[in-house]
Write a structure and sequence with these properties.
This protein is mainly β. It has helices spanning 2-17, 21-27; strands at 37-49, 51-55, 58-65, 70-79, 82-83, 86-87, 89-100, 106-121, 124-141, 146-158, 165-179.
């Protein structure tokens, strides 16, 4: 399941970004703050779902620059939090808008968006919850194609579309990204 999801995301990313690659070389993408890229991140997640605790999630994301500073990011988080009723699986696909600045090789950013979370456990019915998220961090260019990323992301999970969040996660993530040029 994980391999199929990652492969599907990769194929979609290539279909979206490949036609723009040649045009970007001549458009000065080296000077803009927003990034066209693919990121793989992991870290620590504090959760308050049906029980509280810590887990080590993994996320894969694809971003597309919309302007020099604004980018659309689409991705998914995968985690296995142990809750009061036992082990569970949390999958949270989402879309975010991020605003970046560029200072040399450093690209600080803030981001916000939403999505849906699927929480599955053998002892309970699968739950689908709308999410809202926000955070910020730093991308640091390691070379012209590779960058390191560190971020903090807060996520609220609601029981219904217009309900206040009844569960939450706080994620401290780090990883690596590849710029698509």
């Amino acid at each position: 399941m994980r391999l199929l999801s990652a492969a599907s995301l990769y194929v979609c990313a290539m279909a979206i970004f490949a036609p723009a690659t040649a045009a970007q070389e001549s458009s000065g993408t080296m000077n803009r703050a927003s990034v066209d890229g693919i990121e793989i991140v992991t870290g620590l997640m504090s959760f308050d779902l049906s029980g509280t605790g810590w887990d080590v999630p993994t996320a894969i994301r694809v971003s597309k620059a919309l302007t020099d500073n604004l980018a659309l990011e689409i991705g998914a988080l995968l985690s296995s939090p142990h809750q009061q009723f036992g082990p569970s699986t949390l999958v949270a696909p989402e879309a975010q808008l991020s605003y970046s600045w560029k200072f040399g090789r450093a690209r600080p950013f803030v981001a916000g968006g939403g999505g849906v979370a699927m929480i599955h456990a053998a002892t309970r019915d699968t739950q689908w919850k709308p999410t809202i998220s926000g955070g910020g961090g730093l991308r640091f260019e390691l070379n012209e194609n590779l960058y390191a990323i560190g971020e903090i992301r807060l996520r609220g999970l609601a029981d219904g579309m217009f309900d206040r969040p009844s569960a939450s996660t706080a994620e401290w993530m780090f990883g690596v990204g590849w710029m698509l040029r």
